[in-house]
Amino acid sequence: MRDKNRIPKILNELERIWKANPDYRLGQLIVVGASADKPNSDVFNIEDEDLLNGLLKFDKRAELENEVQDEIPDWKRFSNVSRLDLKELTIELLEKLIIELKNSDKKIVVTPINLMKLNGAPVSDQTWLLNQKLRIKKMKKLLVELKENGILTERKSKQDFLGIKEVGYDIVE
User: Which of 4-13, 51-60, 111-120, 153-162 has the highest mean pLDDT?
Assistant: First the structure.
């Protein structure tokens, strides 16, 4: 049996390198990392979404996803507030996102972390989350403005995510 301890080491290196080179697709990084004399163009050119679909099929989770095939995944449906440049993160964008949420079947407590989680951001990764302080601060400010504009109502109790207390909002119907 192979040593299971190799998995986090490889994944950590892959994550570090990919974050430093976000324009690369995963297949490209793997081919380059393998230093193949003759790169496999199938792997090098595979789109990340196709690779993800293949991985889902590998462990049978694709069957679960096919049951809700009519649904568009949240990370495709909603504005990606986790990756936008901070200059692009505006009140208009957040208002549009809130309206999309209101018109969807999603019932979430609106907080900066929940909005980022909606996009598939790795919010449970404390290191990643700590690097998002400016984004979270800006989103908090914009959510207060949306509350003042009558689009959101503030909840009485604070939301707790991994020890981080946040003001939560409900969408006004």
Answer: 111-120
Q: The tokens of 45 are what?
A: 């050119």
The structure tokens listed for 85 are 């440049």
Q: Helices 91-102 and 133-148, interaxial angle, to 10°? A: 70
pLDDT digits (tens, 9 = 90+) for 53-110: 666 565 554 454 455 444 554 545 566 787 778 888 899 988 988 888 888 877 888 8
Phi and psi, residue 13, nearest 5°: -65, -45
- Specify whether the backbone of 60 is left (phi greater than 0), alpha (psi in -120 to 50) or beta: left
CB 95 within 8 A of CB 144: no
DSSP label of 170: E
What b-and-e string marks burial along 85-103, b requiring 16 or more CB atoms within 10 Å of the CB? eeeebeeeebbebbeebee
Could you give the 3-state DSSP secondary structure of residue 154?
Answer: strand
